[in-house]
C-alpha cells in the first residue's frame, strides 16, 4: 500500500453530521481518485480512504436507510 500525504487537504464536515457535535464525519473532496474520511472529534485517530465508487455506494446505502 502506498503512503498518502493528507497534510495539505481541506476537510469539510459532512452535511449529515449532527449539529450538536455528535456523529461528526469529515471528508476531503480535493484528493484525486480518493475520498479520505475521518472522525472530526478525533482527527488524529486515523483516516479511512475509499475509492470514488465505493464511497458513492456507501453514501447511497446510508441515504436509503436514514430517510
From TrEMBL:
Superkingdom per UniProt: Bacteria
Record's protein name: DUF397 domain-containing protein
Pfam families (alphabetical): DUF397
Occurrences of domain DUF397 (ranges): 10-62
InterPro entries: DUF397
Species for this entry: Streptomyces phaeofaciens
